[in-house]
Automatic annotation (TrEMBL):
Keywords: ATP-binding, Nucleotide-binding, Transport
Polar residues: bias regions: 1-16
UniProt-recorded name of the protein: Phosphate ABC transporter ATP-binding protein PstB
PROSITE patterns: ABC_TRANSPORTER_1 (PS00211), ABC_TRANSPORTER_2 (PS50893)
Gene (UniProt): pstB
Pfam families: ABC_tran
Cited InterPro entries: AAA+_ATPase, ABC_transporter-like_ATP-bd, ABC_transporter-like_CS, P-loop_NTPase, PstB-like
Domain annotation ABC transporter: ranges: 28-268
Sequence segments annotated as region (Disordered): 1-20
Domain of life: Bacteria
GO terms for MF: ATP binding
Length: 273
């Protein structure tokens, strides 16, 4: 496969991968992270830093640990009994595995899944759900959060006249943007996205990609994708995973134009995976 780097406006790196804006703060620092499902090791000594207000993409063949790693960043793997984790994940100077406040963590680090998973309720109630659970009852305040979140997810104009109708009546692409609005409503710093466009048609995919590019001015975004063109289009940094290890991690331009590792080159040129 030939990867053409078709960067959208706002690219922060040049072709050689030299950062033009290297002043960004590290938001997440992962060191020596190992993860086991029972006896089976799924992540091997993963260490990487993620900068704030950038888009970071994880690519790699099926089963290489991308989603597992993504889920370590807001402790979603805690929900699986057999999981054992060692190593550190530091977000804003705090090791998230040493803090007991998982609810606070998942508010700060929101998540959008592969398939839109809206509740069978109105568009309004879907977006207001999280804030209500956090005790916000004031109607005016909720209206403001719902509008701001839907605007932030670039779907306000499409749904503003049908906020009280079922969210499940929207198209798949619209539903996915409402899911993004639902994540935004919790005012996170970081949004994890696990293959958010894999169930969408090309036009909806493009809308979500444009949205991600706009959102990075406010959020740190980490996306798992099978689509290398997508990683090339929207991410600032890319990590290539293989068999539970990070083989290569660099600016997206550099990784796709001058990969340093033969395995990365083989993968991005379609020799395997
Ligand atoms: N809940 C689980 N219990 C046991 N093993 C699991 C579980 N989830 C994932 N695994 C295993 O861990 C490894 C990594 O899986 P993971 O889903 O993280 O890979 P991935 O790169 O995201 O794959 P894909 O691209 O197909 O989604 C695989 O071998 C998988 O079978």
């Amino acid at each position: 496969m030939n990867i053409t780097i078709d960067r959208q406006k706002g690219s922060k790196t040049n072709v050689l991968g030299n950062e033009r804006h290297s002043d960004k703060k590290t938001k997440i620092s992962v060191s020596d992270l190992n993860l086991f499902y029972g006896e089976k090791q799924a992540l091997y000594s993963v260490s990487l830093d993620i900068k704030e207000k950038e888009v970071t993409a994880f690519i790699g063949p099926s089963g290489c640990g991308k989603s597992t790693f993504l889920r370590t960043l807001n402790r979603m793997n805690d929900l699986i009994d057999s999981v054992k984790i060692s190593g550190k994940v530091i977000i804003d100077n705090e090791n998230i595995y040493e803090s007991s406040d998982v609810i606070k963590l998942r508010t700060k680090v929101g998540m959008v899944f592969q398939k839109a998973n809206l509740f069978p309720m109105s568009i309004y109630d879907n977006v207001a759900y999280g804030p209500r659970m956090h005790g916000i009852k004031n109607k005016k305040e909720l209206n403001k959060i719902v509008e701001e979140s839907l605007r932030g997810a670039a779907i306000w104009d499409e749904v503003k006249d049908r906020l009280k109708t079922s969210a499940l009546g929207l198209s798949g692409g619209q539903q996915q943007r409402v899911c993004i609005a639902r994540a935004i409503a919790m005012k996170p710093d970081v949004i994890l996205m696990d293959e958010p466009t894999s169930a969408l048609d090309p036009i909806s995919t493009l809308k979500v990609e444009e949205l991600i590019t706009q959102m990075k001015k406010d959020y740190t975004i980490i996306i798992v994708t099978h689509n290398m063109q997508q990683a090339a289009r929207i991410s600032d940094k890319t990590a290539f995973f293989l068999n539970g290890e990070v083989v290569e991690y660099s600016s997206t331009d550099k990784l796709f134009s001058v990969p340093q590792d033969k395995r990365t080159e083989d993968y991005i040129t379609g020799r395997f995976g």
